[in-house]
Amino acid sequence: MVEVGPVQIENGIVRYAGNNYPANRILSITLDHNQKLKTGIISGIFWVAGVSYSVDYLETKKDFSFEAAFFFIAFAVVALAYALSKKAYVKMKTSDKSVIIKAPDKNTASQICNAVSEQIARA
Known about the structure:
Largest sheet: 4 strands, antiparallel
Low-confidence stretches: none
Strand content: 25-35%
Distance between the termini: 16 Å
Helix content: 40-55%
Number of strands: 7
Number of helices: 3
């Protein structure tokens, strides 16, 4: 049995989050850079909305503008922290669905890709 981060591989079966994926049903496995890009874009949109509501509050003193500004800026900070985290994502496509594997860092994500690719080649 090989254990790489949150993934366990044994006898051609890849286990992640309590699910079993036979290597012969896995179509591809790649590092997924889109997750962090999407989160960064969402964070930017939240920052713009938060600043817009802040400016509106300063001009009109509406309570709604203050609450909306606080809401958007708070979520922008959370999304930015998520986008800047060290976690890396691996996208594994099977014949019937796509699975996102969360790895603690990029090195572990690369090791997961390599280990699963070896199992796919053997299958």
